[in-house]
Each structure stands twice: as C-alpha cells, then as structure tokens.
Amino acid sequence: MPRRSVTSYDIAKAAGVSQSAVSRAFSPGAPIAAKTRERILNVAAEMGYQPNAIARSMSSARQDTHQKSGMVGVIVTRLEDPFFAHTIAHFSRHLQASGWHMLLFTVDNEVEVDGALNALMQYKVDSIIILSAILSKHMARVCRDQGTPVMLYNRGAEGLNVNSVQIENHEGGRIAADILREAGHERIAFVAGDPNDETSQGRAAGLAERLAEDGLEVFLHETGDYTFVGGREAGLRLFSRVERPDAVFCASDVMALGVLHAARHDLGLEAPRDFSLIGFDDIPAAAWPGHMLTTIRQPIRRMIREAVDIVIDQMNTPDQPPRVTRFSGALILRNTVRGAGPGST
Amino acid sequence: MPRRSVTSYDIAKAAGVSQSAVSRAFSPGAPIAAKTRERILNVAAEMGYQPNAIARSMSSARQDTHQKSGMVGVIVTRLEDPFFAHTIAHFSRHLQASGWHMLLFTVDNEVEVDGALNALMQYKVDSIIILSAILSKHMARVCRDQGTPVMLYNRGAEGLNVNSVQIENHEGGRIAADILREAGHERIAFVAGDPNDETSQGRAAGLAERLAEDGLEVFLHETGDYTFVGGREAGLRLFSRVERPDAVFCASDVMALGVLHAARHDLGLEAPRDFSLIGFDDIPAAAWPGHMLTTIRQPIRRMIREAVDIVIDQMNTPDQPPRVTRFSGALILRNTVRGAGPGST
DNA sequence: CTGAAAGCGCTAACAC
DNA sequence: GTGTTAGCGCTTTCAG
Predict the structure, then answer these.
(1) Are the beta carbons of A279 and A255 closer than 8 angstroms?
(2) In A70-168, which residue ranges form alpha helices assigned H by DSSP?
(3) Is residue B66 part of a domain?
(4) Is A305 in the same domain as A212?
(5) For the HTH lacI-type domain, which residue ranges apply (chains A, B) (predicted)?
(6) Whether residue A251 sits in one domain with residue A233
(7) Are both A190 and A122 inside the same structural domain?
C-alpha cells in the first residue's frame, strides 16, 4: 500500500481552499482570515497533517541566504564524559527552547571533524557548534563562504574568524597554582588531558607561570587522557616514585577523581593529609561526600547560554563579525587542599 | 552579497554536462561513464560542491513510501545521567557508522514526548528511537500510519505495536534478591527511581517476588529519583531509622552510589560490613576503586547494536512486524555484598 | 551513456 | 484575503 503522507494539497481539497491558503494557515504572520485559518487547522488536525519541514526549508531556501533548515549541527567528542554529557544536555535544551533542532555528531578524534562538518553542510544546517575540537582552516573557510556561523565551544579560534566561547584556561591554572602555593606546596605535579590540546596546555601554562614566579617548576608532568582510568594510572605513577609530589593539579575532575581513588584505595594515601589535589570543571561527582574535590568550576550554564545566544543572533542577522567570549573559572574550595577547605580559617 | 550556495547546475555548466549527469555522478549505482563521473567529481571538489541532502530527500520522497531524509530521531530524558550519556554515545556512533544522522531531542518529562515526536515527524525522519520514555497510543498510531518505525529502548511496548529492546527488569530484581538472600539478609530495602515507571517497578517486583518465596517482604521502600542526590537522601532516611535495613537494592547505580557515599561519609557505615548494597546498570563509576559496587550489568553495547540493527532493517525493508527483544542482566560481583565478592570463596 | 523534463511539498511574490 | 504561479536543488523516468 503506497501510504503517501498527507500534504497541504489534501488539506486544501478537503477544506475547499487553495493550497497556499493552507500554507498561510500554518505561517504565523501570514495574511489570512481568522475564520479560514481556523477551518483549515481543524481539517488538518483531523487528517493528521503536519507541514513538511524539509519541503518548507527547500522553498524558503531561496529567500535570502539564510537557509532555515531549522537545524543546528553539533559536533562533540567523548560524549561519555560527564562534562560533555552535561554540556550537550544544556545545549539541547536551550536550542530546543528557542525552536531549533539539533543534528548531533560524535567524533572519536579530531580528524573526523571535517567529515562530520561536511555531512552537516549537506544538510544545510543553519549553524554549527563544535565542542572541544579544532576546526581546520579549510573548513572554516568553507563555512564562511556558505554563510554558516560556526561556534567553537571550549576552544580558541585564532585566525579562524569564527565565534568562540571558552574558559580562561591559563588563568584557571594560575588560580590552582595560587591556592597550592598558599598551602605551602613545592612539589606540584600536573596531569594533562591530552598534552597536545590547547585546553590542557593552557592550564599547564598557567600553573607553570605562577610557579615560576616563586622560582619553582612543575615538579612532574603526567597524562591522563581525560579519563578516570587515565587519571588513576597517572596517580599510581606519580605516587610510586621515591620522591612523591606533595600536590597534584589535574586538567579535569574525572582525572582528579582517578588520582584520588588511586591514592586512597590503591596506595593508602589520603588528601589533604598526604597530598593536595585540585581538579578542573566541577562535575557533580566532585561534590560527592566521599570526594569533596577542590576544583576550578566552569560556569557552564552561563557559557552555554552565551554560546547559544550568539549563534541564534547570527542566524537571525547574518554577516556579523565573529564574537569571542572568555569566562573565568571559580575556585571551589572543598576538602582536598591542605589548609584550604570550606571550613578553614 | 547574495552568496547562493553552489548547486549541481553550476557544476554541470563548469563541467560541460547536463545537471542530471552531475546527479548521477554522486549516486553510487547510477549509469554513467567512469570518465564522465571522474571529471564531474573533480570539478565539484574544486568548486566545493556537496549535494544538498535536503533537496535530495525532497525528490526521492516520492519514490515509494520510505522517505529517506537520512535522519533518525532520538528522544531522550535525563541526558546528564551517565547511563544515558553512554547510551546516546553508542547510538550515535552506530547510527553514524551506518550512514544515518541523529536528530536529538531531550525532554524533561513524559508529557513532552508527544511534542518532540511531532517535530520529528515534520522532519520526516526515517525512524524514531525513544529512550526510557513512554509512547502514547495516539502517537504510536500516527507513526504507524506514516510508516515510521519506532523503537522503544528500555521500555516495553505492550499493545503499542512497536519495536522494543529492553533489559529483563523483573529477572534483574530476582538476581539481586538471590544474592542478598544467599548472604543471609532479611531486612532488604529497595530504592526506586521513579516509583511510577515500569523499569523501576519491574525491578521492585522481581525483588519482592523472590523475597516472598522465602516468606519475606521488602523491608522498606524509598525513592531516589534516579539521581545521586536522591539516592543519598534515600540512604540517609533508610539508615537513620531505629531498625535499619541490612541490605539495599537500588534501581540504578547512581542512586546506589548515593547510598554508599551517604552511609560511608555522612553516617560512618561501611559496606559490606554494616550493610550490603547492590545497584543496577554497571556504570563506569561503579567499578572505581573506592566504590567497587556489586551490581546488575546491562549489556548496553549488545542492546544498542540490536536496537540499531532492527531500526535500520526496518528502514530498508518497511512493513515488517515489530520486534521485541529482551536482554538479561548479569550479576557483577564486587565488594558491596557481604560474603560475595570477587575474592570470596 | 547522456540530456530533457517532470515532479517532491512548500513558500512567496503577484494579481485579483 | 485569496488563488495562481514560479521556483528551492535534487532524483528519476523517458527519449535519443
């Protein structure tokens, strides 16, 4: 049975009007008599008609240059990471609340980004948000040529001429260094996520810079791959040395939790008694009673609202210059840094 | 500047062929000379042309009834929950690997599902996957009428005539009860997620059934809202009673972790010394050294593969009867149940 | 193997 | 206010 879906022509016929009347009935500001609209809407409801969004975007495409597929493409890596899961959840809600739909791509590494971008462009998404991944110069140009606004979330956009919303990584590293120095630590280790990415590097640089001011260097560098397991292994390596670090700063909370669990359960070391520990992000698990991890919080709600606002604004009025916004992280004092807890003097 | 995007006509002109030749060059099986195709593809690459997926789906729409937008709609609740984040991550990867794109909707409660469904239908998605949410009889009919296959993941589909992939909740509850009874527990409490949902109810029922066989009843019922905080509060309530439960079965790991942290850090109670604890799902955090939570594992990789396979199969060959698959959970013995650890005799 | 031509379902001028 | 008429960019017969 060729179950062709019901179109505006079917409704037109049934309601005894022209097809364009049906179209108008479904377009908010369109010139149409209230009574006509009502009748059409009734017939439509009865016959289970819904305007075809694809066809709609096809025809309005020509209008001016903004294509109005009604979709924004989102590219994300490591969705299983709680930090990203939260981020996507917020993006999704904000976008939906403003009437936009999200076409989601997950990529496993940076090289896949271009492919995802291409697919997204084929769908004529009205805008693209890229989470924690780089954008090639080439694709940045392609997007600009198409007039598709791009938002780099959690990554800088130097020389790319696209929007970006990010946390102040360098500053965050300094804040962490500060509190650790205040607590009197001298052998401070750093656990990177991916040592090659900008985020991790910025945090490391901030730490190093602040330590240098006291004539110190980062005591040890480790890599934790942005995962709990990676953090745990880094912690094991760090604390198995004859000369142990007396403090650890991790580029993310998940890794810091890995270090904490490793120290506590594999090695019998306790924070802040035996070492101080500080993370980055402030994921929910950081606040669990058994963790109480001191960390640098990213104001993700505000950051995402800003990112979505920029993107929506640019979809509505194209050809704006790209905007770059940076947010500061806030030190959240909990119990893993010596002498600096919520209940300390 | 009216930056119209480059179309197949532009390529046709530049390559000195007809527009339909360009179309054929981009359609795998189409009749076209290899040399012609190559030339076209080159020109296209040079001019940065990509076929417009929207337009493509518009025209192939008529074909037969399967609309081929190339998108599958996914509706999810509580994306911030690690369990769902993982699930979505896997769905996304599998779908992408098979060339499908994911239009994602997050909903905050069951009543929003119908709205999301409507939006999805407007985009003519080729199929719909609903995670842990119910489907109204009405929308089930609408989808069937349109010929859009629907997959209920983690929810049953009685009388709905749609596909479903789910875990054996009742059986899982029994397994939990079994191991707890073996350990000699008698005052076994249950922490529900949402006491009204089928998932939680199934697990509770399995527990109750097994206990009844020993002449026991569920000692106490609590609700944890499927969150860590909810679990923690439930734990606090449970263990503050004069007569404490000696074991707790939680409808999800996150809640079980809440109970564990509450007991350990708020109350000074330790598992399995003072009580036994068992969760459901086997999220990564359950295996963290400081947790080592005994739990019922959902084989989510297999489950998702199955769900995706069914959905893809039905998109390719429509009008199949709906399929329902149930998976069994596996008991993962770790250290929170008395006398039943990986290292126990 | 290739080009011409007819739509897919809708929106947006343009007349009436 | 309403109907008529072109397209949006592509796929797909249908001739040649």
Answers:
(1) yes
(2) 82-97, 113-122, 137-146
(3) no
(4) no
(5) 6-60
(6) yes
(7) no
Residue B83 domain flag? yes
Chain A CB contacts of B105 under 8 Å are 92, 96, 101-102
- Whole-model pTM: value is 0.94
CATH of the domain at B34: 1.10.260
Cβ <8 Å between A3 and B147 = yes
Q: Which single residue has its CA nearest the C1' atom of nucleotide D13?
A: B63
Note whether A180 and A292 are same-domain residues: yes
Q: How far is A209 from chain B (nearest CA, A)?
A: 34
Which nucleotides of strand D lie under 7 Å from a protein CB?
1-13
Q: What is the pLDDT of residue B316?
A: 87
A214 vs B165: CA distance, rounded Å: 59
Q: Are residues A285 and A180 in the same domain?
A: yes
- Count the Cβ atoms, other than its own, within 10 Å of residue A108: 9
On the question of a cis peptide bond just before residue A2, with omega within 30 degrees of 0, the verdict is no
Q: List pLDDT tens digits, range A130-161.
A: 999 989 999 999 898 888 999 999 998 888 88
Residue B308 lies in a domain: yes
Residues of chain A with pLDDT under 70: 1-4, 61-67, 340-345
Question: Are residues A30 and A157 located together in one domain of the fold?
Answer: no
- The protein footprint on chain C, as nucleotides within 7 A of a CB, is 1-13
Indicate which CATH number applies to the domain containing B264: 3.40.50.2300
What is the predicted pLDDT for the residue at A152? 97
Q: Encode pLDDT of B227-238 as tens digits.
A: 999 999 999 999
Q: Angle, to 10 degrees, between the axis of helix B137-146 and the axis of helix B113-122?
A: 10
pLDDT level of residue B41 (50, 70, 90 thresholds): very high
Residues B164 and B178 placed together within one structural domain of the fold? no
Which nucleotide has its C1' atom closest to residue B21's CA? C2
**DSSP-derived pairing of the beta strands A330-332 and A294-297:** antiparallel
Q: Which nucleotide comes closest to A61 if you measure CA to C1'?
A: D8
Q: Among B48, B88, B121, whose Cβ lies nearest the Cβ of A79?
A: B88
Q: Give the pLDDT of residue A216.
A: 97
B15 shares its domain with B45: yes
Q: Is B197 helix (H, G, I), strand (E, B) or coil?
A: coil
For position B299, what pLDDT does the model report? 98
Q: Strand C: which of residues 29-58 in chain B lie with Cβ below 7 A?
A: 31-33, 35-37, 58
CB pairs A-B closer than 8 Å: 157
DSSP assignment of A161-188 equals --EEEEE-HHHHHHHHHHHHHHTT--SE
Please answer whether residues B235 and B203 qualify as being in contact, where contact means their C-beta atoms are separated by less than 8 angstroms. Answer: no
Protein CA B22 to sugar C1' C2 (Å): 11
Contacts of B268 in chain A (CB under 8 A): none
A61 assigned to some structural domain: no
Q: Which residue is nearest to nucleotide C13 (CA to C1')?
A: A63
Q: What is the pLDDT of residues B303-326, one digit of tens each?
A: 999 999 999 999 988 889 999 999
- Domain housing B144: 71-168+300-328
Number of domain units in chain A: 3
